[in-house]
Amino acid sequence: MGRSSTWCVRSVSSILDAREQRQAALSRALSERRQTRVFLSLNVPGENKVPAGSSALFSWALRETLALCSSQSVESSHEVFQDALGPCAIIAIGSDPLEFKRLAVALETSQAAARLVDIDVYDDAGRQVGRRELGLPARPCLLCEQSAVDCIRAKRHPVNEVIAKTYELLSNFSA
């Protein structure tokens, strides 16, 4: 038991450290130049943040996000890194944040596994542009059609069921 609980504490600590480091990197990026920023990551529940298929899904999401920039003739630059939470990217774009968020939501809903993709868009003042600003409902839960945030807060579903659904989505993913 000692080894397991030590791993759990270390794992939680590394996840919290990664969250702090991601926020610091995003804050730096938002303060560098006043332009729209995109933070791309995956929402993978459970302790294993990089299960089989997640790297392929992230690579697909990054390619598709950069292709959205190209399709709009928008200049972009990006930085990709990996931490205890998995892969992520910060992308600077010369685009209207509301329009890009609309395109990002379409990408997040384009196929089943893309529901695990999280594309956060920030305007040139560093404010996050959400689905609400577009008049869209909150991101749906993986297991039901309720708001994902509401299901998480209410603990409506056993964690192992959410993880199993995540692995199922990843196993069926094809770029």
Would you mind describing this structure in some detail?
The chain is of the alpha+beta class and 175 residues long. It is built from 5 helices and 5 strands; from the N terminus they run αβαββαββαα. Strands 2-3-1-4-5 form a 5-stranded antiparallel beta sheet, sandwiched between helices. Strand 2 and strand 3 form a beta hairpin. Helix 2 runs antiparallel to helix 3. It is globular and about 40 Å long. The model is unreliable at 1-10 (pLDDT under 50).
Key terms:
disordered N terminus, 175 residues, 5-stranded antiparallel beta sheet, alpha+beta
Poorly predicted runs are 1-10
**Average pLDDT, all residues:** 88
What percent of residues are in strands?
Answer: 15-25%
Instruction: Give the helix/strand class.
Output: alpha+beta
Which descriptor suits the 3D outline? globular
How many distinct helices? 5
Helix content: 40-55%
Distance between the termini: 40 Å
DSSP E strands, number: 5
What kind of assembly state do the chains in view correspond to?
Answer: single chain
Based on CA atoms alone, the radius of gyration comes out at 17 Å
Biggest sheet, in brief? Answer: 5 strands, antiparallel
Return the string of H and E elements. HEHEEHEEHH
- Report strand order across the widest sheet: 2-3-1-4-5
Task: Write the topology of this structure.
Blueprint: H1 2-32, E1 36-42, H2 54-71, E2 76-83, E3 86-93, H3 97-108, E4 117-122, E5 128-129, H4 148-154, H5 159-171
Antiparallel strand pairs: 1-3, 1-4, 2-3, 4-5
Helix pairs in contact: 2-3
